[in-house]
């Protein structure tokens, strides 16, 4: 597949065209709409050529709506919380954007708390906004404050791989010891296990399997885990 | 982003808890240093030092200048280091952060004030011409412990550098091009190595060597010790942080002596390896 740089035109044409991450539709001077890439990577499309996207890797997160992210609370501004999600701007989280929150009954967050939230509004010219409940059901569904555990930073491609149910890493680790994780699309993964040694093993495995840091395959990870005494 | 957000509460609690059990997040032992990887460039005096993900580039350049009137018999050494946003997104260009000031002062103390290079040997013609050696340090990536990495890169660059040979006949000075006469190494008194130890608020946690970025941010105090392989102490720097008992400091000195010897062997081996690949004829 072809590799493109930001700003290059992509020949995406279909009656029912759907543009995925990294592609933008721009009306050129003549009036004809042109599809332009906004990221560096490989152009990929679905079999019937109606879905197009850019597959690339980077460490800097650009917020997109409906993505789940792990954020760190930085400060409070009135009723809202300012949360760092690794993007160019801090995100805002309304104090009431939690399941069952009312003016009298609010979750007690502190500066430095970790949150698992969903990006509800992301525009390149505005600060992103977060919500801590599912869009359809308006229930927590796993969003909210993350207590205990540890935070691992990885590349964006790695967290997409971890979210793939067919990827080998978490089932392999889970077969050895119970673990909990919250994977953010912004390159941050929260992990929790009973012993600190197990958490450190998970963190080192994530860094080893990361395409940036070597990209270990399953057999190598098994050997690596045997040396770690978990 | 000008100011980085401090580590989150779960990270802080986990690291403190794991360190109580002497477990480091990257799997190293408490007193294990990341092995430095030294890469030499095509020019003499160009060294890149990588300790894990922390990478520093050092370059040495020399030119002849007129010495200042108060020191007519000595050469001059200047060290230039600047932290750009390339090192980490915490640093802003133009405004020296606290870390940058610490780095500059430590480099100055370890590489210049401890008399590593013999300045009198840099004098060519008293009062007229001396060598001005410039060491430039670029921090390419900060993943913890920039100071040690920068000092190591600097000292290896100074050892790697060769200045052109100079001939003085009466008042005439002839600089020979490296292709005519083999360039000459700088005359160095000793080779100091810098080692940084981090301490944590809980008194039962032992100190650890070569902190990573997260460990540095969460530490309660940093102690930097510079010494050479001959057990001579050059610099001790402890800027604030929790108080230390004299016994702790002496224990750290013993550890530092062993590590300095290991580093010395490693540096010498790498320099020799690199020197063999270069073709410098001596006629």
From TrEMBL, chain A:
GO function terms (MF aspect): exonuclease activity; RNA binding
Keyword RNA-binding: yes
Every Exosome complex exonuclease Rrp40 N-terminal domain range: 17-60
Keyword Cytoplasm: yes
Location(s) in or outside the cell: Cytoplasm; Nucleus, Nucleolus
Keywords: Cytoplasm, Exonuclease, Exosome, Hydrolase, Nuclease, Nucleus, RNA-binding, rRNA processing
Biological process according to GO: CUT catabolic process; exonucleolytic trimming to generate mature 3'-end of 5.8S rRNA from tricistronic rRNA transcript (SSU-rRNA, 5.8S rRNA, LSU-rRNA); nuclear polyadenylation-dependent rRNA catabolic process; poly(A)-dependent snoRNA 3'-end processing; TRAMP-dependent tRNA surveillance pathway; U4 snRNA 3'-end processing
Entry GO terms, CC: cytoplasmic exosome (RNase complex); nuclear exosome (RNase complex); nucleolus
Domain K Homology: 149-196
PANTHER family xref list: EXOSOME COMPLEX COMPONENT RRP40, PNAS-3 RELATED
Family: Belongs to the RRP40 family.
Protein's name according to its UniProt entry: Ribosomal RNA-processing protein 40
Organism per entry: Lentinus brumalis
From TrEMBL, chain B:
Pfam families: RNase_PH (PF01138), RNase_PH_C (PF03725)
Domain annotation Exoribonuclease phosphorolytic: ranges: 33-164, 191-257
Gene3D superfamilies: GHMP Kinase, N-terminal domain (3.30.230.70)
Top-level taxon of origin: Eukaryota
InterPro entries named in the record: ExoRNase_PH_dom1, ExoRNase_PH_dom2, ExoRNase_PH_dom2_sf, Exosome_comp_Rrp42_subfam, PNPase/RNase_PH_dom_sf, Ribosomal_Su5_D2-typ_SF, Rrp45
UniProt GO molecular function: mRNA 3'-UTR AU-rich region binding
Keywords: Cytoplasm, Exosome, Nucleus, RNA-binding, rRNA processing
GO BP terms, alphabetized: exonucleolytic trimming to generate mature 3'-end of 5.8S rRNA from tricistronic rRNA transcript (SSU-rRNA, 5.8S rRNA, LSU-rRNA); nuclear mRNA surveillance; nuclear polyadenylation-dependent rRNA catabolic process; rRNA catabolic process; TRAMP-dependent tRNA surveillance pathway; U1 snRNA 3'-end processing; U4 snRNA 3'-end processing; U5 snRNA 3'-end processing
Family named by the database record: Belongs to the RNase PH family.
Name of protein: Exosome complex component RRP45
Organism whose genome encodes this protein: Lentinus brumalis
């Amino acid at each position: 597949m072809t590799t493109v740089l930001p700003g290059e035109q992509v020949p995406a044409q279909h009656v029912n065209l759907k543009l995925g991450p990294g592609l933008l539709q721009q009306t050129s001077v003549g009036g004809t709409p042109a599809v332009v890439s906004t990221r560096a990577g490989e152009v990929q499309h679905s079999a019937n050529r109606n879905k197009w996207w850019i597959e690339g890797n980077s460490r800097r997160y650009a917020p997109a709506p409906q993505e789940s992210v792990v954020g760190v609370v930085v400060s409070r501004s009135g009723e809202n919380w300012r949360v760092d999600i690794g993007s160019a701007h801090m995100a805002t989280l309304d104090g009431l954007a939690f399941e069952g929150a009312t003016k009298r009954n609010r979750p007690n967050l502190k500066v430095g708390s970790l949150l698992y939230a969903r990006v509800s509004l992301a525009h390149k010219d505005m600060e992103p906004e977060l919500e801590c409940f599912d869009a359809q059901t308006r229930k927590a569904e796993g969003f909210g404050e993350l207590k205990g555990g540890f935070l691992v930073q990885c590349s964006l491609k790695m967290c997409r791989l971890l979210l793939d149910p067919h990827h080998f890493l978490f089932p392999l680790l889970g077969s050895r010891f119970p673990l909990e994780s919250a994977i953010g699309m912004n390159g941050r993964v929260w992990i929790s296990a009973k012993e600190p040694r197990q958490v450190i093993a998970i963190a080192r495995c994530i860094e080893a399997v990361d395409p940036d840091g070597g990209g270990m395959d399953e057999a190598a990870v098994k050997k690596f885990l045997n040396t770690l005494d978990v | 982003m000008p100011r980085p957000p401090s580590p989150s509460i779960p990270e802080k609690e986990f690291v403190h808890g794991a360190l109580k059990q002497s477990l480091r997040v990257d799997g190293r032992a408490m007193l294990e240093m990341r092995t430095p990887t030294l890469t030499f460039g095509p020019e003499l005096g160009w060294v890149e030092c990588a300790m894990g993900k922390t990478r520093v580039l050092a370059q040495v350049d020399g030119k002849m200048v007129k010495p200042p009137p108060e020191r007519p018999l000595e050469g001059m050494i200047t060290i230039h280091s600047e932290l750009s946003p390339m090192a980490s997104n915490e640093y802003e260009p133009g405004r020296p952060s606290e870390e940058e000031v610490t780095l500059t002062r430590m480099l100055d103390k370890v590489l210049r004030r401890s008399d590593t290079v013999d300045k009198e040997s840099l004098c060519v013609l008293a009062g007229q011409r001396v060598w001005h050696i410039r060491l430039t340090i670029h921090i390419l990536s900060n993943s913890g412990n920039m100071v040690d990495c920068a000092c190591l890169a600097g000292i290896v660059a100074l050892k790697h550098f060769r200045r052109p040979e100079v001939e003085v006949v009466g008042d005439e000075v002839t600089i020979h091009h490296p292709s005519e006469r083999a360039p000459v190494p700088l005359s160095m008194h000793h080779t100091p190595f810098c080692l940084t130890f981090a301490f944590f608020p809980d008194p039962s946690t032992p100190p650890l060597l070569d902190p990573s970025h997260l460990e540095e941010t969460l530490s309660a105090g940093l102690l930097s010790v510079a010494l050479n392989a001959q057990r001579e102490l050059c610099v001790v720097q402890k800027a604030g942080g929790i108080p230390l008992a004299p016994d702790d400091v002496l224990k750290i000195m013993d550890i530092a002596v062993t590590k300095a010897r290991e580093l010395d062997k490693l540096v010498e081996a790498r320099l020799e390896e690199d020197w063999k690949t270069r073709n410098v004829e001596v006629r």
